[in-house]
Every structure is written in structure tokens, then in C-alpha cells.
Amino acid sequence: MDKRCPFALDTTGRDIHAEADVLRAQGSAVQVELPGGIVAWSINSHAAIRRVLTDPNVTKSARNHWPAFINGEIPPDWEMISWVAMDNMVTAYGKDHVRLRRLVGKAFTPRRTEAIRPRIVQLTEELLDGLAAAGPGEVVDLRERFAYPLPARLVADLIGMSEDARAKTAKVIDMMVDTTVTPEQAQAVLQGWRGAMAELIAAKRREPGEDITSDLIAARDEDGSRLSEQELTDTIFAILGAGSETTINFFDNAITALLRHPEQLELVRSGAATWDDVIDEVLRVESPLAHLPLRYAVEDIEFDDVTIPKGDPILVNYSAVGRDPALHGAGADRFDVLRSDKEHLSFGYGPHYCLGASVARLVAKIGLSSLFERFPDLSLAVAAEDLQPLPTFIMNGHRALPVRLTAAVAVGAAH
């Protein structure tokens, strides 16, 4: 086993791509130090990550396979406690994972996905109308005004959460992905989102609706053995967090990439490329997730150059996947919508593949096409290198996305 000093991940997320390059150069599996001095393994190559995502000897269940957590060595105020304390389909193992995934999967069938389209169009039009009210030359934060509210409001609709409740919970989610939080803040985050989900569940028990929360409550109350109360609480939160945070950062990265590379945007406008090309190329070169915590080795895992011991925690370095030169050659870090091979793993792979991927793609296509149709002269209000990254090594996005909209075209959102 490699005994080198663990690589300390930059909790401020100042340059996740440079960090991914360094880790990839050190090996497919490298020991890294997390907040609180916890040591884990970062998996950094495309081939190694694909293997880890499908290996039955890799689990996401801390309560079953992380000895330090099981033995009480991980304090309840650990800075990343929310990522391991959850009990839902994301962290479930074996038959429990299959059971929970089957229940949640009913909400994301092709028929249900297509039924969401009118709501996506409506939300997009509302947000674009609000942006159109900005004064000539006014600088607007497009992350706050478009990239954030579009997926966040849609997912809140899907789980039946009011706008007021969503706004309050959004602050908790933002803190959960912030890897610079203090132990006290981390404890408050865990209590905060569980409290918010408990309030939502209580409200839906009183007044069920046409939403995922009501459906899952019905499944639990029909037969308590199918879904425990904590599984119910934590699964709804997982849908809210995963469905909003990653798509917010996708929009942020996609808009930034197209404004930095206007020749790529022109390829879409000319018909040489499609919005689907843009979506996959952005997901490849700018994965919304950077380092996703945590997985665990059920047994020793052998790589060519190292062994990950049984029980050790694992991080999947998604920011390293699409830019791996072993997969995409020397130009792997170049944004190119006409690239023939846009393979990425930003929706995951294997048993934990994102259930909401089809919804995310639909939101992305409607949102991006409508934005650039409505504001064809959209431009960055600052130099691209002056955009400030989010304070995290978990997510890949910016604190703000200041733009100038210029004149709006009076057209409806694209369908």
C-alpha cells in the first residue's frame, strides 16, 4: 500500500481542474485528506472510475461498510457529516438500494418526464420575462436569476414543496456542498434539512398532492416495511439536492462556456451542432460534480499500482473523468461541441446512474435554447478568469455569473 503523505484537497475549490490533473498524474487511486483530517482515496482516471462505479465491492453505505463511522470515530459535527449520515437510495446497499430505487424510479418514467415539459417552459418564460425587465446595460447575476431558480423551482414542484420552504431549504443545501464550513455549521446543516423535510412530509400527510413526496408517503403507509421514516425523509432530500444543485451548476458552466467560446455558440445557431451536443460537451469538460463523497471498499480493491484496503472511504473525481487524456487525447480539456466522442460520467454509471437524467436533459435543452434565443447578444460582464469558483471541492460552479443581456427578442420559450 502506498504510504505517501495524503494530498490535501483544496477546500476552497480555487482550481478543481488543475487539482484533478495533479491527482491523475499521481495515479488512478490516490490518498487525499478531507476536512477534519479524514483520509480517503480519490479515484482519478476514467477507466478506474468506471470500474469503481460498477464494482459490487464498492458501496455508498457508511453504516454498513465504514468502520470509522460504525465505531463512532466520526464525530456528529464532522464537516461532511450530511454526506454520510443519510439513509436513502443514494447511500443504501444491496436489496435496500434496489427497493428504494424502484420506488423513486416511478416518478421518472418517460411518460412522466414528458408531462413535465409544459411546467419547464412556463418557468423558463417567467424567468426570462423577469430578466427582460433589466435596464439597458445593467449587469445581472445570471446564476442567481436563471441558473439557480429554474431547476430549483422545478424540483420543488416535483416533490410538492412550496416556494417559501424551498427558499429556506436552499440555504441549507448551499452550505452542505460548501467544504469550508465549520463543525458547528455542519451540524446545523444536518439538523436543518432533516427538519425541513419532516415539515414537508407532515404537510403532505395532511393534504396529499400529485407529487413525489405524496407518492412515497403512500408507499410507506401502505406497508411500513417498504420505506422507513428516515428513508422517506432522506430520500426526498436527496431528490431535492441532487436534482437542483447539479443542474444549477450545469447551467452556470454551459452559459460560461458558450460566452467564452462564441464560435461554438455560432455552430449551434448555424445548425452545424445541436443543443444536445452542447449539453454532452459541457457535462464532459465541466462536470457539475467535482469530487463526490463518499463510497467505501467492501473488500480490498486492487489497482495496478495500489490497493485500497477494506473499509476505506473513496471519492469519485468526476472533474477528472471527461478531461482524461487516456480517453479524449491531448485536447481533452478543450471545449468542442463538434467533438465526435463526448463520453462522460456526469450522470454516474452503473447501479447509481441518475434517475432524473432525462428530466435534467429536458430542462437543460429548453433552458439554454430559450435563453440564447431571447438574448442573442448575451455577454459576460467580467473577464472569464475573474469569475469566482464556489467554495467547495464537491461542486463545480461559480459564486456568481455577471452578464449583460442587451436587448431581448420578444419571442416565447422554445419547445
UniProtKB/TrEMBL annotation:
Against InterPro entries, the record matches this protein to: Cyt_P450, Cyt_P450_B, Cyt_P450_CS, Cyt_P450_sf
Q: Name one Pfam family in it.
A: p450
Per the UniProt entry, what species is this protein from, by scientific name? Microbispora maris
The UniProt entry's sequence similarity note says: Belongs to the cytochrome P450 family.
Segments passing through the bilayer: none
Q: Which SUPFAM superfamilies match?
A: Cytochrome P450
Q: What domain of life?
A: Bacteria
User: Know the name of this protein?
Assistant: Cytochrome P450
Is the keyword DNA-binding assigned to this protein? Answer: no
What keywords sit in the KW lines?
Heme, Iron, Metal-binding, Monooxygenase, Oxidoreductase
